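Handover notes (outgoing to incoming on-call)

Open items:
1. Diadenylate cyclase: sequence verified, structure written out, both below. Nothing else pending on this one.
2. Nothing else urgent.
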Amino acid sequence: MLEFSIKDFIDIFLVALLLYYTYKLMKASGSIKIFTGILVFILIWLVVTQVLEMKLLGSIFDTLMNVGVIALIVLFQDEIRRFLLTLGSHRHVSALARFFSGSKKESLQHDDIMPVVMACLSMGKQKEGALIVIEHNTPLDEVIRTGEIIDAAVNQRLIENIFFKNSPLHDGAMVISKKRIKAAGCILPVSHDLNIPKELGLRHRAAMGISQQSDAHAIIVSEETGAISVAYRGQFYLRLNAEELESLLTTEN
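Diadenylate cyclase structure tokens:
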């Protein structure tokens, strides 16, 4: 007679949770078919080794499984990195890290955000495209290094000048970190998520890419429509007004 304890329930629950988050990660990166293929291969391996007990074929599958782990790490290194970044930037994990390090969280207030909001509204009216990334718990040092270092106070006029159509930095992304404009003209990772609507352009895909790899807010001002959108934690918030934009940017992480 089979015995089912609370420990077995926790074990099954954790495995199901791991598979669920792995599925979400693969779906976001457009690798869902590869993930399905891996699950089918594991199922066949279990049937061959545990149910049918085929020794020769089972040994071949065992060898493939051992080599396959290394191959998966190489193949999905970006997804694994994204998962670890997401785990490390989780609000509870970040709070625990701050507790042991003795540092305090710097939250963005109304006065910190309003220059950004006003600049986005102004650029939206003039249909000047913009992409602004606001760093939170996940460091964006690698992204900052791809652009031109500015390290200036957050200022509405400065933001508008950087994204002016004739500016040499208007095509890249601006990164705001620790309440300062750290860099402009930065290159962001582009999301290949097939679920992104086709009418959204490269700026939106770049914003989604950084939002999937960090806990940053990525603000997009459309050059075609002037609409203001935000990508945050792998989700789009489209056609925002001033109040909605401010509320979203001051959301606790």
